[in-house]
Amino acid sequence: SMRMLLEGEVDALWIYADQAHLYQCGDGVAADWNCSLWEGFGTKYAYIQTGMVSYTVGGTTLTMSKKGSGIPAIVNPCIQKFKETKSYFEICQKHDLVGSCFPNSHFSSLPKPNIWEIQAPQLNTTCADGYCSCPEA
Fold first, then answer.
1. 11: CB partners within 8 A, 6+ apart
2. CB contact at 8 A, 3 and 37
3. Confidence class of residue 62 from pLDDT cuts 50, 70 and 90?
């Protein structure tokens, strides 16, 4: 999809807002992807509409089931209950994901959000930074 964007076959694509950051190649990166496709961040391409989180009920899909099976009605309350525990916080902490986890009463403070976690209208960046702000018209 990135090749199609750079070659003008498509005008936009939907990817995670940290993907360009994660796919930058440099010293110490053992890339198993085409690094040249991700060059030009902020010059050849940039993100618009970052920080869209309305789709996240409990994070990225954890289970898949046949429609009408009733599995979500069983699993979702368990996920919600677990997200309120100290164990959930400790897992987030252990894997250095505190800023990406859903905070509960065990989170005493949250780190400053990464730029890709900030909603576009609140950004203080330009497209040259790779993340276009969304100024009021």
1. 5
2. yes
3. low
- Using the structure block, give the residue that is written with the tokens 């997200």: 83
Supply 83's token pair.
Answer: 């997200």
Per-residue model confidence (pLDDT) at position 60: 58
Residue 62: closest CA among 49, 74, 79, 42: 79
pTM for this prediction:
0.60
What distance in Å separates the CA atoms of residue 69 and residue 46, rounded to the nearest whole number? 40
Give the pLDDT confidence score for residue 61 in this predicted structure: 56
Identify the three-state secondary structure at position 94: helix
What one-character-per-residue DSSP string does 34-54 give?
-GGGG--BTTTB-B-S----T
Torsion from C-alpha of 38, 39, 45, 46, nearest 10 degrees:
80
